[in-house]
Automatic annotation (TrEMBL):
GO terms for cellular component: mitochondrial small ribosomal subunit. This is Uncharacterized protein. Pfam families: Bot1p (PF12298). One of its GO terms (biological process) is mitochondrial translation. Residues 20-29 have a biased composition (Low complexity). The lineage of its organism: Eukaryota, Fungi, Dikarya, Ascomycota, Taphrinomycotina. InterPro entries: Ribosomal_mS45 (IPR021036). Residues 1-31, 48-78 are annotated as: Disordered. One of its GO terms (molecular function) is structural constituent of ribosome.
């Protein structure tokens, strides 16, 4: 006696989508793809490359990356020089709270900077050993 291993073996009609449903989903995704390609070669062309000057390249050209969610306003990125200075100050003995106050960065962000700098240094030393 063979036991059923899936729901479709018990009831072959179960969990099957009608063919028209999958066709309509396919045509919707195709139309979305076409719309994106059109946008990417017209209005979206300015967003193809990173901005030449420091800063952001948001769709609306203002302060938020998602035009339909203006409440989301992320903090600006921290420069590489600042991240290195934060890490060097930490290595010289400053605590996380002191670094947070000195650079006006949240504690969580300081911790993330320190962790990422450590990972970056570890990767650099490991890759030099491999070469």
């Amino acid at each position: 006696m063979k036991l059923a291993t899936s729901a479709t073996e018990v009831d072959p009609g179960k969990n099957k989508e009608p063919e028209s449903s999958s066709l309509s989903q396919n045509s919707i995704s195709h139309s979305h793809r076409k719309a994106f390609c059109k946008w990417a070669t017209t209005k979206g062309l300015v967003h193809r490359d990173a901005p030449q000057q420091p800063g952001t390249n948001y769709l609306d050209g203002k302060s938020h990356p998602f035009p339909l969610n203006p409440q989301f306003q992320p903090k600006p990125p921290i420069s590489s020089e600042t991240r290195v200075r934060v890490y060097d100050d930490w290595k010289s003995g400053l605590g996380i709270q002191q670094l947070s106050m000195k650079y006006s960065i949240s504690l969580q962000r300081v911790e993330a900077i320190l962790k990422l700098q450590q990972v970056s240094i570890r990767w650099t030393t490991e890759s030099s050993r491999l070469n």
